[in-house]
Amino acid sequence: MFTENEQAALKLTEAMTKTPPEVTDDLYKLVREFFSEGEIVELAARIGIENFRSRVNRCFGVQATNVYSQLGDLLKRVE
């Protein structure tokens, strides 16, 4: 279903998403077989940004529709 490089990227994604992250030397070597250093930097940055965004969204109750679930209540308190 996924190519070998896609599988390596998914393994990196899963490892980076764990708390704490579990990126081993062996996993890095696997990823390095398919991606250049620059590509790994970009891939890791994108994975990190998505993890950050996901955790912040969860903290504030942001739903998949990108709408803050309690925005109405918040705006009433600000007025």
Short descriptors:
70% helix; 79 residues
Summarize the structure.
The protein is an all-alpha fold. About 70% of the residues lie in helices and about 0% in strands. The mean pLDDT is about 90.
The overall strand count is 0
Mean pLDDT: 89
Dominant shape: elongated
Query: Helical region count?
Result: 4
- What structural class do you assign from the helix and strand content? mainly alpha
Low-confidence stretches: none
General description of the model:
With 79 residues, this protein is an all-alpha fold. It is 70% helix and 0% strand. It is built from four helices and no strands. Helix 1 (4-17) packs antiparallel against helix 2 and helix 1 crosses helix 3 (37-59). The protein is elongated and about 55 Å long. 5% of the residues are buried.
Per-chain topology:
Elements: H1 4-17, H2 25-34, H3 37-59, H4 71-78
